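lol so apparently i was supposed to do this last week
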Amino acid sequence: MHQKKTERVDLDPQETSEWLQALDQVVEEAGPDRASFLLERLAQRARNVGVELPIQHNTPYINTIPPEEETPYPGNRALERRIKSLTRWNAMAMVSRQNKFDHGIGGHIATYASIATLFEVGFNHFFHASYGDQPGDCVYFQGHASPGVYARAFLEGRLAVEHLQNFRHELRDHAGLSSYPHPWLMPDFWQFPSVSMGIAPINAIYQARFMRYLEHRGLIAKTPRKVWAFLGDGEMDEPESMGSLTLASREKLDNLIFVINCNLQRLDGPVRGNGKIIQELEAAFLGAGWNVIKVLWGTDWDELLARDKSGLLIKRMEECVDGEYQSFKAKGGAYIRKEFFGKYPETLKLVEHLSDEQVGKLRRGGHDPQKVFNAYRVAVEHKGQPTLILAKTVKGYGVAEIEARNPTHQQKELNDRSVQLFRQRFDIHLPEDVANRVEFYRPPDGSPEMSYLHERRRQLGGYMPARKVLPSRIQVPPLESFADLMVPSKAPHPSTTMAFVRLLTTLMKNPQIGKRVVPIIPDEARTFGMESLFRQFGIYASSGQLYKPHDADMFLYYKEQQDGQILEEGITEAGSMASFTAAGTAYSNYQVEMIPFFIYYSMFGFQRVGDLIWAFADARGKGFLMGGTAGRTTLAGEGLQHQDGHSLVLASAVPTCAAYDPAYAYEIAVIVQDGIRRMYQEQEDRFYYLTLYNENYPMPPMPEGVADGILKGIYKFKGAEKGKSTLQLFGSGPILNEAARAQQILAEHFGIAADVWSVTSYNELRREALRVERWNRLHPGDSPRRPYVVSALDGAQGPIIAATDYMKVVPDQVAPWLPGRMVTLGADGFGRSENREYLRKHFEVNAESIVTAALSRLARDGGFDAAKAAKAFEELGVDTEKVDPAIA
Ligand SMILES: Cc1ncc(C[n+]2csc(CCOP(=O)(O)OP(=O)(O)O)c2C)c(N)n1
Ligand SMILES: [Mg+2]
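anyway here it is w/ thiamine diphosphate bound
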């Protein structure tokens, strides 16, 4: 970065003046575009001949669109103001009333107060609910501005008074409204969960990209559809908010518009008290290749700026920091005159004809429909780049005693005087009794404002937000389609990862649903042996392949194509999860059912991007998360940061996520096939997490009659070969092989017969058992039902030893239903870079450890001689005094 050199001496003022005159002349005669072209060429030449030029990523602190380039407002400003004022009223009333009746229930007034104009101009002129028979724009509403969105839906007649009265009371007799946008709680209304800061920006970027993907692949019609994301300036602090900006510019996403509500405050205080958040964001977004439009000053400033011949007004605008701008609004007109305009006699003079009240009301750009409209118009028409609109607003705008104050975010109630002032401020005309009781108000049907409001929405294709789901058009392929996963594997040593890749290929070739499959990979395809998919299905690249790949003459070359099916996301689990979200909710946003598979290092899923997964569940997302290189002892050589032993624990926390830990190819086939049936054919709102391992071992054929057990979570994999078994061994994933080996050792060396069970999902077993238990609790008079895990084990004798490559708490989930029977072995603690043999010994999950646990347990129960057990430990090479891996 070059330093800005401000201290330079003008060595030849005459020459300087000639250059400046020449520039003035070009602007006058050929226009600003020509001048800009010439300057660009000059800059290029200067760089070529070694002149150092400062890199500028900021424009002056004024509106990007000059007044002369604005078009007149197309709507009826008076009626729109009336609608907006009523929306403000109802939003304020909703929060304020609720806190009176149910103190502390929460809600926000100040945020919507600042964003109202930004929403309303959109609702009246830009947000398309549909494009002909095609779904409309995707609008991510700033989450905690939800009262304003509800208030508008109420005016539109889509919500009743009872809904508003039950804001944040979902559990009352009349269904209420959720605090924030939650499709899970309001499935016909909200589309995009947005209130966890940073989730909306990254999801919006990948949504816009996925829209292009669907268009390029011919799965949806091309429309002028946009993705609008309304974000907070404080929200931009989150790494997720800004982390994917260059994807949007690289992909030329001119279907994407960010609107950042720059009220200069976050929760505690100013966003950048000592600086200017708008300038900071402008530089970052311009640097990232976005089109940036600043909307800082309202129309009443145009005239002041036009008269500012000294240039001191702009200078003053530039030198004030946000902390000062906040004070100006908090302290009012007289203070602004003194502290802002009063700095220079020239600027003070500019406002001498205005009263203090008028000075106080000089509007910021984000509160001026004329300025906002023009910014949106330019953004919508802009080609080749995503657009950022930086709209300067006031937090708590128009709410007397909280405007621009530090605690404004938390303000939930207004006293009578504030309500009175609020009404005056926005000319809110209401029947007196309605106003006094702070009640909700909707003007009668047929009134000019109601007619106008409905007509505007009719023109824009309907009401928003709204979430729609059409009947399913997906027919799941029968299990037989995956026959090669049901028979002994041809390859001598496959892994479950390889089996999955075979399944995915089969699925993608399926003539009915193959095109709906979206493989998503964060730069890990070779790790999972998926590179063969590159050539077969192509990597999505919006501009095709602009180079000849070096491996073009090879069979499996790196093939990028415009209608490629694979999303190769690069090293971003967050970005991949955002793609997974766009794909997994396409059934409702685009009415196209897509089946995403996101394949990643299992360690970097729930742990790394857990909040995005949570939002995915809220959005009723569908699809398959595939946690590759799973297992704390199975992923060898990578060590502590890579070896996952707890993603199944984290997955158990997500209510709609069914998590499985399969051992064999046929188990994967059964789970995925039934998953597609349930999610798509039956339209259940759920998704799947499957672990995939890279250990190579023979895949057995599918035993008869086990499909139901695989799906429910447990089935008997291998009964005792000889004699009646007195011991039960549970295994999952590759550790099932250790259980099988333990079965053999026990039989051959100790004459103990044991059964081996494959536990595909402790999580699902537990959930089912909890459901059954709850039913029993609520129906004490009826004969009790039995959880599946209990009935599956009918007749199975003796203690249970459960071994897993995950934490012990995973099997322990079913312990309450197996009273006193279960001993758990699992991989608690930090991983090591070792090989599998040593890892399994260290974590005590190998066959020898399983045998040890079994003998120990039998010895304690009196079923095996304790002295013999101790001797057996020696033979098995067990160090009874070794360090506990859980704390090592
Ligand atoms: C990930 C996350 N962390 C913290 C919060 C709590 N929170 C809610 S709103 C808010 C401040 C938001 O400030 P800003 O984005 O500027 O929005 P404004 O209300 O000023 O428009 C915070 C910290 C959250 N919702 N999400
Ligand atoms: Mg803010």
